[in-house]
């Protein structure tokens, strides 16, 4: 790309043509205070006026996040005029903002507080009325508090960017001083076709959008003397370290286990065990559909955000979904039946907590279809961020913890295939490893099906399995998924098996993962979305490579579970415990 010569604070630099002043300044070693800085362009461009700078020759101050550099441009960041304007912009935002910072879960990661400090903004400089507040906590997943919203529009843009323009649930409601961000007609999320993925939470710079915490529920269960078991999803270990200043992509499995043990959980298990179980059930279901004329293509059902999307928008295609529960729900069912019987604990005395990268898992556990013997399979879901809060609350110095192993009971072994569930394409690859064995009677020599790896919105491949061509596709984010679903509806789909994940990049970029923004990553130089997702993905792929067993069907404890309890994959008992149903739902309702 062509280069242009510019000056910043009187110093000459050469930068790529087409960059904004904000981006160019960052490359040259300057950080202009901003509420959209390096957040993938997801904001109402230039609306907050926090990043104002002087450009010699321009008629007034310019918003650096949208103003492109050009040859010979001279930029002044620190002039009294620009400094005062940035401070005033932040003070105006603060004047309409709830300032109950000590009660806000975003405290410590709030970008508004960060720019207030950077600009020297003073609290209470502009006093007056505040916009009427909507507080919505009716869903199990998302809390919306408009008193903390600064109308940056990042949540609105992320919803559309991840799931398509037609899918956007959030928008600007009302006008002028009464403007708020909300679902249509300021409805609750519970009365909208929101898929609860939590991507809006990930990009909110304040506490206006947050996951609904279940820490108090876990505290209550421990206080009541319940037998509290915790399970952790694969993507959590790839990101939890970020909560404690560790580099993106640092695998922290052992320290995570040590922390959970110190937090008082009776047993610490890995959801990867149930991921292997999911592959046994899902792979068998796929083979049955292929050989017995079942509904094809079969589509994975591990992502609750995707399941919500299907029930809202493609009710006629629900027979294409695998009937398998997601891994943590399968694990909950096994823990409260098979495992409870083994250790002599009554199911009603057992309390199962899932640590998930996905805020939508909170919604999923409430589904009526995910109960066994009248009890929910999973009792509480904490996000990766909530686990970080728990660890800090307990005064645990996470980076200094020793590495410890998961509990070595009868449900702890897992394969590398279970690990890669956390990245887009991982469920597909894990299933192919087992399906290949089932169809050929031998292991796939290369083990890795790299054809289904990558962060593109849609990927496709044809896998030759002993002369049988299996057409597969992978989508992450509903924007890509809709393309595949429209083809199915039109009768044009060529695929046998499709993996769909609700979040771009899969669970490693789930709605419950640590916030990513440059100013909070002092050890990182990268600030591009694909870069941080790829770093987390690499952490999971590297753990897969380190495993002795890398195929789900070779997990000895999975074999024992079928021999002693379930019988065989897709058996009657397996269907009772490990499979579920779906139902079409209305979108916006009263």
Description of the structure:
By secondary structure, the protein is an alpha/beta fold. The chain folds into 3 domains: 3-95, Ubiquitin-like (UB roll), CATH 3.10.20.740; 131-211, Alpha-Beta Plaits, CATH 3.30.70; 216-578, Rossmann fold (3-Layer(aba) Sandwich). The chain has helices at residues 21-27, 80-95, 111-119, 154-163, 199-203, 215-223, 234-237, 253-262, 272-292, 304-313, 327-343, 360-364, 384-393, 416-419, 426-440, 478-489, 529-546, 556-566, 572-578, and strands at residues 3-8, 11-16, 52-55, 62-63, 74-76, 135-136, 142-145, 171-173, 180-182, 209-211, 227-232, 267-270, 298-299, 350-356, 371-372, 375-376, 380-383, 458-465, 468-476, 497-501. The protein has a 5-stranded mixed β-sheet, with helices on both faces. It has a 4-stranded parallel β-sheet with strand order 12-11-14-17, with helices on both faces. Helix 2 runs antiparallel to helix 3 and helix 9 (272-292) crosses helix 15 (426-440). The longest helix has 21 residues, at 272-292.
What would you say about this model in short?
The chain is of the alpha/beta class.
Strand fraction band? Answer: 5-15%
Per CATH, what is the topology of the largest domain? Rossmann fold
Q: What characteristic shape results from the CA principal axes? A: globular
Q: Order the strands across the largest sheet as they lie in space.
A: 2-1-5-3-4
> In terms of structural class, how would the helical and strand content be classed?
alpha/beta
Largest sheet: 5 strands, mixed
